[in-house]
Amino acid sequence: MRNDIVVPGAGELTYEIRNIVNVAEKLQKHGVKINWENIGDPIVKGEQIPTWMKEIVAHEVMQNDSWGYCHTRGVLATREFICGQTNNRGGAQITPDDIIFFNGLGDAIAKLYGGLHPESRVIMPSPSYTTHTLGEARHIHAVPVHYRLNPEDGWAPDLDDLENHIRYNQNVSGIMLINPDNPTGMVYPRETLEKIVAIARKYDLFIIADEVYINIVYNGQATVPLSDVIGDVPAISLKGISKEFPWPGSRCGWIEVYNSGKDPNFDKYITSILTLKMNEVCSTTLPQRCIPAIMGHPNYPNYLAERSACYEKMSGITYDFLRQLPGLMVNRTNGAFYMAVAFQEGFLTHRQSLSIANPEIRELVETLVNAPGVSPDKRFVYYILATTGICIVPLSSFSTPLQGFRVTLLEKDEQECRRIYRTLAEKIGEYLRS
Which of 26, 158, 210, 408 places its Cα 20 to 30 Å from the Cα of 72? Predict the structure, then answer.
């Protein structure tokens, strides 16, 4: 074309969680049976939605109002219900006008970063969930600023690293955190959240907290929503039903805005996000209308507890198989349903491989791993996929220099979970010895 129509750095933006699917689908054509451990979709892994929840959705489908537009901010009755849940905790108090619904949190994230001043930066954890880093990278047309999550300290955030980045980079305007964390499965203790809020207050920053997994915590760990500790600091919490109900196909998430009215610049920012949403009229009506009845159902607390207990069991199985391997930094997952594993420095190289009997599959993998710029952990992931059918994601794709991989804990069959991670552990050992 006569003009360059691509934003600077667009070639740098990848979504490896989905990209690995393209490779897996090619392998399927050669008869490789795939275990999809790459993406956090409980439905794909066999999660059964309870009948009482389906009945609530069926009832709402029969109401004519569920077929129409709703308010741009979202269904009023649902926003009032969410306000009650948040305000009853005794922390930050919100009104229905402090809630805006989106077509999934991907929509919300794109608008949050897209609505920022071009020179403003949001510092985010490393490793970090790809949708956040892509949103920030598109906004600044550069590599995002990160603070370190330490795999040798249970993936705890390095608060000294966080504050140093803020102190010496005046463009940092906000702090992003994910609690419980994706990709690591780390859960933020209340004390850590309070320290991050104190840093934000000290440097006059706002906070973005992705809390979509806030009610999926186990292994005796505990956390609190940001609203409990935010005090007078401006903040945004991202929440949704994709993982919690789970209803990922609903594309339904929302933001809660804390301390609106206390900073005029922050208020203008929130107004700009609402204006962007107005261009779409509103978000999907049906799932919003279902939220009060589902979350308020007497079976809902036990349903969540049962799911968390299942993830706890699978986290234990996965941890027990992988922690025995030399060269791996393995931490038990305590929230959400992911585990991030990092290799110690020097354990992965560009020379390692696994034997592949099928010549067509071998040719496909060798073409992929010999492409320019392929990281050692991406090479590792391709060989694992080709030889075992286990589809995992390279850790380096989560904005970290660490080499490793991320898996999910969504397998419903305990024996199948043991088979998958026994096989993975065996192949890791074989790969490291090659």
Answer: 210
* SS3 of 206-240: EEEEECCCCCCECCCCCCCCHHHCCCCCCEEEEEE
Q: Does residue 213 fall inside a structural domain? A: yes
Name the phi and psi angles at 40, rounded to 5: -85, 60
- In the chain, what is the greatest distance between 2 CA atoms, to the nearest angstrom? 65
**Average pLDDT of the residues of the chain:** 93
Give residue 4's pLDDT band: very low, low, confident or very high (50, 70, 90).
low
Which domain range does residue 422 map to? 10-47+301-433
Note whether residue 58 is domain-resident: no
Write the CB contacts of 268 (distance below 8 Å, at least 6 apart in sequence): none
CA distance 76 to 54: 22
How many whole angstroms separate alpha carbon 99 and alpha carbon 236? Answer: 10
Amino acid present at 10: A
Distance of alpha carbon 280 from alpha carbon 282, whole angstroms: 6
Question: Are both 358 and 259 inside the same structural domain?
Answer: no
Tokens of 72: 């741009």
pLDDT of 9 over the 60 cut = no
pLDDT tens, 324-377?
A: 999 999 999 999 999 999 999 999 999 999 999 999 999 999 999 988 989 999
Q: Same structural domain for residues 246 and 105?
A: yes
Amino acid 27: pLDDT? 87
CATH number of the domain residue 140 falls in:
3.40.640.10
> Is 10 a residue whose pLDDT tops 60?
no
C-alpha 119/C-alpha 3 separation (Å) is 25
Q: Number of folded domains in the chain?
A: 2
Boundary residue ending a domain (254, 279, 295)? 295
Tens digits of per-residue pLDDT, 125-168?
Answer: 999 998 999 899 888 888 899 999 999 999 999 999 999 999 99
* Boundary residue ending a domain (263, 295, 327): 295
